[in-house]
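ingest -> validate -> predict -> emit
validate: passed (alphabet ok, no gaps, 289 aa)
predict: started
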Amino acid sequence: MRHFLIILLFSSISFARVDTGADFLKFITSARVAGISGSFVGLADDVSTLHYNPAGLVNIKNKELLLMGSEGIMDCGYEYIGYGQKNKNSGIGFCVLYFHAPEMLRTEEDKEFGFRVLGTVEYYDLMVGFSYGRRVRNNLSIGGTIKGIHRMISPDKGYTCAVDLGVLYESKNNIKFGVSIQNVGSTIWKDELPRFVQIGGSYRIEELILTGAISHHLISKSKPEFRIGAEFWYLKILCLRAGYYSLEGELSGATLGGGIRITNWLQADFAQVPATLERLLQGSITIKF
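emit:
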């Protein structure tokens, strides 16, 4: 019953597969990234890189703050905060991801009344991460993230930790390649974390960026996931994004998005993505200072 509840709630707000412990770690944490179907590991050029490839921290312009929220059915949802800053040939950052659901009744069978209420169930997941990236050559950077993970489905609690590792190569002809391995760590409630490897690239043609990525899950037996995306900026103010996400089952589909650069330090992004129960509208704000 506990695992069925997790699958139901996660599938209402995410287009990620739900098949391991702490699957909230696979949530999209930026509307910009969602608009290009999550194919960001080989682009990694803003604070969104904290969740996809920590090697990209060297590409942050000074300091950046990312705020995102997403809501699903039954008042469940998640919030994400990410901060990163560049220091010469390196970058540092931290992030917080919080998934929550409303309190629900805990019941048991009763011969006379059918069931009786025992109390309420509180459910949430929390991840706190600290990241570091460094340029080791002019065109090569590496990075890592240490995560602390906490799960609560009252009265049970679980704690564990995990590590992300990433590499980013940037060629002279506007082509980049990235590789990351995510959520390498122990178990939570005897469930394996969603460990997976991502390989991707990007190509920039003036104001147009093309992206692609392949993800392979190391725990589940699912086939590799394929993602492609495109981003185009008009007059460096308005942006259009599109992508496609290929996954076994009914979660495959197109992603759409856009953005507006309100000032030099404030950008708002939105995306519409497929999920199990309905298409979702997601939004995020990036502050640069």
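Residues 2-282 form a domain with the Porin fold (CATH 2.40.160.60).
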